[in-house]
Design a protein that fits this description.
The protein has one helix at residues 9-21; strands spanning 25-32, 44-50, 54-63, 67-79, 84-93, 96-106, 114-125, 129-145, 148-163, 166-184, 193-203, 213-226, 230-243, 286-298, 302-314, 323-334, 337-346, 354-363. The chain is mainly β. The protein has two domains: 1-51, Ubiquitin-like (UB roll) (Roll), CATH 3.10.20.310; 52-363, Beta Barrel (Porin), CATH 2.40.160. The strands form two sheets. It has a 16-stranded antiparallel barrel with strand order 3-4-5-6-7-8-9-10-11-12-13-14-15-16-17-18. Strands 1-2 form a two-stranded antiparallel ribbon. Strand 5 (84-93) and strand 6 (96-106) form a beta hairpin.
Amino acid sequence: FKEGEVFSYAKLGETQLNFSNSERFKGVVVTPKRQQARDLHVPVLVELTSGPRRTLRPGLGYGTDTGARFTVRFRDLNLFHKGHDLDVNLYAAQRLQGFAARYTLPSPVDLKSSSAVQLNLQQEDVTTYTSQLAALLLERNRSFGRGELGTAYLRLQQEHFTIGSETSSSRLVLPGVRFSKENFDNLIRPTGGYRYALDLRGAHPIIGSDSALAQLIAEGSALWSLPWRLSLHLRGKLGASLLTDPLAELPPSVRFFAGGDQSVRGFSYQSLGPRDASGRVVGGKHLLVGSIELERAIYQNWGVSLFHDAGDAFNDLNQLQLNRGAGLGVHYYTPVGGLHLSLAQGTSPDDTSYRIHFTVGIQF
């Protein structure tokens, strides 16, 4: 808020939340002094207690998609004493290992606007492919308020991969734009709200890529509170590609796969998609995934749910065959994240086995 604006408790609450979300203060109190008001002007007292500038945090976790994982995160929130943010992550899991370093220059006029550069080194080894990826990302983020964020970015990546019976390397220069909006009533355990994101990106040999492509990725979710402590959660993801080169020349990072904790439960991670002549999953040009989940809150921090997922990766619409998974979920919510256990059965004719999906993460 600015001096002279109409008094609003909502804006005072938003101001306190913005200070807290900046992660730069361990104590934030915003107090209107209405008893000291003069000439319809209300003084506002803002009390801040600085948090640590530098933090080093190890973490442990487990996810069915990645396996057991260990992370170490270093963060400096005031690099060069200019409020610049350096965030370095080292992570090791059974199927995913990597290093990520992000340097962010915050906007002097808006909390959520920024410019950033990020380096990623990653190795992934899953059932359908192996990949070694090095990527440099340059991005400019602009907040439009009300949870809306626009991003223009340039991603340069070199990837060596084996998928199916093919081993190859790929260099891509991917400029893109992304728009997202998020509006949930609570970040830890929301009872209502929605989010969506649209991402358009492309590559062409004229700007240094080995291949030419254009991709649109749209995803979103919505949550509604219902009577009897019930909530309904819908989510979906759509991906579409326009290619001038054979799919076999593209690395797995820009192909589409389905299956896993955040996709179609009842199937293993990245295990669904078009197959090559030998029957191995090699990914597709397009993606369609959706989910519906009904959760019942139990006590303060527990919930149980019923869900049904469906989706697939495919190359042509007439080849789309939705794989389905359905099951039960148990959820436990903590201030640092949730623990989610799901038992799902693939209901497609070629796979009716049960599969357990479990995710948990703890940061010290």
